[in-house]
Amino acid sequence: MLLAFLLLLLSSFSSSHSSSSSFSAEQRCFCQVTGHLDDCTCDVETIDAYNNGKVFPRLQELLESDYFRYYKVNLNKPCPFWSDNSHCGIRDCAVKPCPTDEVPGGIRSESYKYSEEANTLADDDCEKAERLGAVDASLSEETAQAVIRWTRHDDSEDSFCEVDDIQSPEAEYVDLLINPERYTGYKGPEAWKIWNSIYEENCFKPQSIKRPLNPLTSSKGTGKNEGNMFYSWLEGLCVEKRAFYKLISGLHASINIHLSARYLLKDTWAEKQWGHNVTEFQQRFDEVLTQGEGPRRLKNLYFIYLIELRALSKVLPFFQRPDFQLFTGDATQDAKTKQLLLEILHLAKSFPLHFDENSFFAGKQREAAKLKEEVRLHFRNISRIMDCVGCIKCRLWGKLQTQGLGTALKILFSERQIESLAEKGPSPKFQLTRQEIVSLFNAFGRISTSIKQLENFRNLLRPLQ
Hints:
The chain is mainly α. 54% of the residues lie in helices and 4% in strands. It has 18 helices and four strands. Strands 1-2 form a two-stranded antiparallel ribbon. Strands 3-4 form a two-stranded antiparallel sheet. A hairpin with a 4-residue loop joins strand 3 (263-267) and strand 4 (272-275).
């Protein structure tokens, strides 16, 4: 009798266990990544078709242009939150800066911004443009005043990010094409310390609510129950704070996809081989291995895609102005780059199911303004945390992507200023620096690439059971 009971119990356990593992590897990662997106009118399938077939190829071409491949950044700023400034010793964490003479002359003259006179500067004048804090005496009074207005605007309070001083001697140009975002080996407690600081201290979460799968907290709960409690709390937040968490989660998911898609598969004296690591992807997104958390992260990736796409559609008037140039010094190439950029922006505007940001900060004016400032300061804080990342290459891409997302948020909440832009010259009400422009499109390029890589991982997982 006892033997029969044990056999029955074993049979029952085996049946329930196999019910979750019997799904294919593809289903376990993508089972929830379909259909309608929360807080949006859009669906996953529409985004996949739109991005992979239309946006992704054009965007990759744009980001390979000289204007968008060079990004000036200070990778030596000390961490403002804790004293441990040790850097990753892994060789793949290193960043190769770009010698100044390899950077196009027009980009080196960026302190003149986009005034009409500045865009006709000869290459010989580029050295003058790099003088710290100087407004060149040879400029007309009108152009000099434009430079001053730009400087004032750069320091204004509408920024969502802690911006590097690109005139600092420690700021260097980096060629993003030869320093791609990929797996470096930077992981473990140091990496989780960064994400823990972001999620636990800056995503409006009370300490009593445990974040699922947090390796730096000692919890005796069952992960699954904690997940249910966490998401019950999250759904109870106002739409702005809930969106904030989903943006950070989506950014985190995107970074994890890049690391899984460009993983170091082979490292010998003769060659290095980078490619898709399906096991790494599953560890980060498989429904069973992540106790249901992975697919939620993937869905948040689509949310951040919609937010950044909406910003691109909104900022079209800024780039359409005849006075605006993507200036590198090569007039023919600059014209082609601007034309391609405008094609992408028109394509963004034509998307049929845009996110409606009008639901944000729609309450009483004083309370809405207070909430907006709170969100801005939280995001600004996250941008400062990027200076604590020990892996220099991870720091580079972390700073670029947070600045890009911060620029997208700045655009979304500057609709009136964009609509009232003057056709010529800088406007004190709304401007974008070259750093913001480069980070905006490269950050969206990273999200777009992640959506495309999901298609690749789906195909790779289909034969696996």
